[in-house]
Design goal:
295 residues; mainly alpha; 4 domains; 59% helix; elongated
Amino acid sequence: MKKFILITLITLLAIPAFLQAKVVYLGEEEYKELKKEERLNYWDRLETELATLQQRKADALADSAKFANRINELQVELNNANTEYDAVYNEIMTFIGINKSDLAAVKNKINYYNKNIKNWNKLSDKELWSTKKEIRSLVTEYNEFKVTKAAKAPDFRNEFSDLNNKIANLEANLQAAKPKYYEDEYTIVKGDWLSKIAGYSFIYNDISKWPIIYRANRDQIKDPNLIHPNQVIKIPRGLPYSWKVYKGECLWKIASYPEVYGDAVKWPLIYRANKDQIKDPDLIYPNQIFEIPRD
């Protein structure tokens, strides 16, 4: 408001000078070339123009006095508002138990989140998905931080609102980047066994799916009844597009796995997609890696 008033005032004061600049003055030689009647008309126009400009100048000066008074009134109102704001601000800071020295730490944390989000937004979908663990960790950290007392300071209301939107967009981008098949990780804790792990709501919520976990971890789980705390195992998500053959497997058995086709009679699909390395469908070997065709 104050800036608007000052701009208006400056504009009004500048009007006379502007209009006066529009007056076309004749040079001495040009004036001498005018006829008597033309000279009279020229002077009439100048006098009329001058009278108009004088009136506008007087009006502008009168208005400037009004604006000056209004500016003073607004300055008083602004000072009162600042005093009230400071009182409420200090009361809030006292209530949440922080001081201004804590604000620098909050600002640094906000900058930290913004920097990470900016870097992640530059990544391709594949690169973004590869950092999902770090992203989810940061989102969890941010959600815990934004409800702390320090984060409640009025100074950062807009910054946290902006960060909330950025975090939501980042999570949406991560979800969009999710491939059709991927593997999560799970660290075994004391008292776990494969069917119990499969039954967790954040795994499969189905104890009967434990063989899926076993088959995905046969490189480190030799006996499905023997798993150990602190083992980090893979949790398959979706349907795989390739399959590593293990001892004792055949095409119909692989096709029967629920994570492959769940139907043994579909083994020819695997055979036809891998004829370059399967000469006889009854003879496949450990460590061969087959393509699993998907519609």
